[in-house]
Design brief:
Blueprint: E1 3-8, E2 11-16, H1 27-42, E3 48-53, E4 58-60, H2 65-73, H3 76-95, E5 101-105, E6 108-110, H4 112-119, E7 122-126, E8 130-132, H5 146-154, H6 156-165, E9 169-170, H7 171-177, E10 182-184, H8 189-201, H9 205-218, H10 223-237, H11 241-255
Parallel strand pairs: 2-3, 3-5, 4-6, 5-7, 6-8, 7-10
Antiparallel strand pairs: 1-2, 8-9
Length: 257
């Protein structure tokens, strides 16, 4: 097993465990990640997800190069089927997940590992973590969605600098660019991720899901279309228990009850 799931008090922690391979994403690992995400998504007791890597050296070094090389040797159609479709499927699943996914970056996040960070709604990095887009050194552009998400998140010029040079950046620079939310000492990484999850799951799950959906779907739309997405997300929460409970708490406090 290269993907492990632990659950505790509404929090699911998913760990990529190929430590000796720097948690590189071979095809069985990607497929196992997708299956685990499906399992967690279907479990109503899970309110938030932390995604991390085994050990202290790497969150993930990206796609498994021997697997990737074999697929490429089979030509464009095979490479698209085995690499791009699988990689897009994983990052899109994370990006559109109905519960908050917090990536705890416990070391280097290169290639596909960086693309997972880009796709996730939230990320916290250990202070020794590094981020890179080294695909260009292998002769091709990022195939897991990174050529699209990274420039959208950090800006075209800064995204292209990472994509065109392949050079790594430290965790502090990743935070400055908005690629991660915070940088913490390595020993505090999972605690910080759990604390962030706790600050989210105190709110109604319907509200959390609606916020995730509104931001993710509206992010790259023209403002009028994005506002329509926001309106639909709001309308979906109106009849929920979360709205009724939230309004009741506010009104009770206002009235001094």
């Amino acid at each position: 097993m290269t993907v492990h799931l632990a659950q505790d008090n509404g929090l699911a922690t998913i760990t990529i465990d190929r430590e000796r391979k720097l948690n590189a994403l071979d095809y069985p690992t990607i497929d196992a990640l997708l299956a685990t995400l499906d399992r967690v998504d279907a479990d109503d007791s899970v309110r938030a997800v932390i995604l991390t890597g085994a050990g202290s050296k790497a969150f993930s070094a990206g796609a498994d190069i021997p697997s990737l090389s074999e697929s490429i040797s089979g030509g464009p159609e095979r490479a698209l089927r085995e690499i791009v479709r699988r990689g897009h499927g994983l990052t899109r699943r994370i990006e559109e997940f109905s519960k908050p996914v917090i990536v705890a970056v416990n070391g280097l996040a290169y290639g596909g590992g960086c693309e997972i960070v880009e796709a996730a709604p939230l990320a916290i990095a250990a202070d020794h973590a590094t981020f890179a887009k080294p695909e260009i050194t292998l002769g091709f552009p990022p195939p897991f969605g990174g050529s699209q998400r990274l420039p959208r998140h950090i800006g075209r010029k800064r995204g292209l600098e990472m994509i065109l040079t392949g050079d790594p950046i430290p965790a502090v620079r990743a935070a400055d660019l908005g690629l991660v939310n915070a940088v913490v000492p390595a020993a505090d990484l999972l605690t910080a991720a759990r604390d962030l999850a706790a600050r989210i799951v105190r709110h109604a799950p319907t509200a959390v899901a609606a916020c995730l959906r509104a931001v993710t779907r509206g992010l790259n739309l023209p403002i009028d279309e994005g506002l329509a997405v926001e309106a639909a997300a709001f309308a979906a929460t109106v009849p929920t228990d979360g709205v009724q409970a939230g309004l009741r708490r506010f009104l009770d406090r206002s009235s001094g009850a």
